[in-house]
Specification:
six-stranded parallel sheet; five-stranded mixed barrel; 18 strands; disordered C terminus
């Protein structure tokens, strides 16, 4: 593949997909391709797809249709669909979009180079078979030079009745603690300051690794991993996502309290505030257990930021059951909540149930929940007013080039006046002068030259 060829990647969906895209971009860089911002000027187009919601899937087909027309006049164009839609649809994608050159599931992200070589040899390739994910030796093309994703566990063994992820991302496969630490050490050497440990169900980390302790628990857990990687020199902040309430332990909460680099920010989806709906979803916990987890976090870390995911209008959800979700949101007061109306996904049990709710009910409940979410987030933001916050500077504010932007330890996006060339990658004390539901504005209190690296 010649060095003059250019590539573009469009990423849909979750943090796992973003991390996969960085790895695939790193492979393309190593192959001599050049990143191109404009997808209509690139020679290799890769869509890294998401199938959690139907609208995200349909957007992929819309993008593909436009590029397929382009390929009819430019046969040298290479079209790739990666990620969850690719895994879900497999060869059906080729029948729907015959212009495609490569269809590859998430487990094959590390094999992009080999698969492209097959395409260049004249093959139309579908790579969706389950494989064991070998340790990745590629160098991701990171979208940031300050913060980085680090995958610690791939796949998911849960069987939530609404979720297609286990079907498209495969079974759980944990990386070894040593490999994870080595990647973090390399990131630190490159100047990265913050790492987010990633897993579709990160609390399950280590269940598939060998060994057990004297008291009978798994030798490798997320808690043990945090202790193992915490002292990597140069890494100032550690986060992790996404957590599952079924496996979120008091031992993990205690570790987050004890380890100063672990940020006081927890993303723990609850999905519904009603126990019967949670049972139908096969989530494996009750709303009472979820409340106990949040209470324990706030007992040890009163200022902790809590974010979550919620689904409304799940099949059979009554108005009373939905109101329990509203009550949970009102009682807990989330800093951020990702909300969605239930969307039937292929191959999931709930998609076949007859008690589906109307689109009108879905829209109504989603709107009511979103209104409450913004009110509670605005209330939570008030605690920042006038406070001094440590902000890790990541980039310039694209809407005001005189400002830089970064995040507090609680993951709140914060803007303030400053020169990115002097401040990028530095932690700056900022006095908060303006609060909004999901972001803050403030004034730096130290001269940039005094701010520690």
């Amino acid at each position: 593949m010649t060095a003059s060829r250019k590539y573009h990647i469009t990423t849909f969906g979750c943090q796992m997909n973003k991390a996969d895209s960085e790895r695939m971009a790193g492979i393309l860089d190593e192959m001599g391709l050049i990143w191109e911002e404009d997808p209509y000027q690139a020679d290799v187009i890769l869509y890294n797809t998401c199938t959690i919601r139907d609208n995200a899937e349909q957007k992929v087909y819309s993008y593909l249709g436009r590029q397929a027309k382009r390929k009819q006049t430019d046969p040298n164009l290479t079209l790739i669909v990666a990620g969850c839609v690719a895994q879900q649809e497999g060869e059906q994608l080729l029948r729907r979009v015959p212009e495609l050159d490569l269809v590859m599931g998430p487990q094959h992200a590390n094999r992009l180079g080999d698969l492209l070589e097959q395409v260049l040899a004249g093959s139309q390739v579908v790579a969706t078979e389950p494989i064991h994910i070998v340790e990745d030796i590629t160098k991701p093309r990171r979208d940031s030079t300050v913060t980085a994703w680090v995958n610690v566990i791939y796949g998911c063994n849960e069987r939530c009745t609404y979720c297609v992820v286990p079907n498209v991302r495969g079974v759980e496969q944990s990386r070894t603690p040593e490999a994870i630490r080595a990647e973090m050490e390399e990131l630190a050497a490159q100047g990265f300051k913050e790492v987010t440990l990633l897993g579709q169900n990160i609390d399950a980390y280590g269940r598939d690794l060998p060994g057990s302790t004297r008291d009978g628990r798994h030798k490798h857990t997320l808690t043990d991993l945090l202790y193992f990687v915490h002292d990597v020199p140069g890494i100032d902040r550690i986060r992790f996502a996404t957590s599952h309430p079924r496996y979120f332990t008091e031992r993990l909460i205690q570790a987050c309290h004890e380890l100063p680099k672990v940020c006081e920010h927890f993303h723990i989806p609850f999905q519904s505030g009603d126990n019967e709906v949670l049972k139908a979803m096969a989530r494996g916990y009750t709303q009472e257990k979820y409340r106990r987890i949040i209470n324990k976090i706030r007992e040890l870390m009163p200022d902790a930021s809590i974010s979550a995911d919620a689904i409304v209008a799940f099949p059979g959800e009554t108005e009373e059951q939905f109101e329990r979700t509203l009550q949970l949101v009102a009682d807990i007061g989330f800093d951020q909540l990702n909300t969605a109306a239930y969307s039937p996904r292929p191959g999931t049990p709930a998609a076949l149930w007859e008690n589906q709710l109307s689109e009108e009910v879905k829209r109504d409940r989603l709107q009511r929940l979103n209104r409450l979410v913004e009110v509670k987030a605005a209330e939570r933001s008030q605690r920042y007013a006038g406070r001094l916050e440590e902000v890790l500077v990541e980039d310039v504010n694209p809407k005001d080039l005189s400002q830089v932007m970064g995040r507090t330890r609680g993951n709140r996006l914060t803007f303030f006046k400053g020169d990115l060339r002097e401040l990028k990658g530095k932690t700056v004390p900022v006095k908060i002068t303006e609060v909004r539901a999901f972001s803050l504005t403030g004034e730096p209190l130290l001269d940039p030259v005094l701010v520690a690296n």
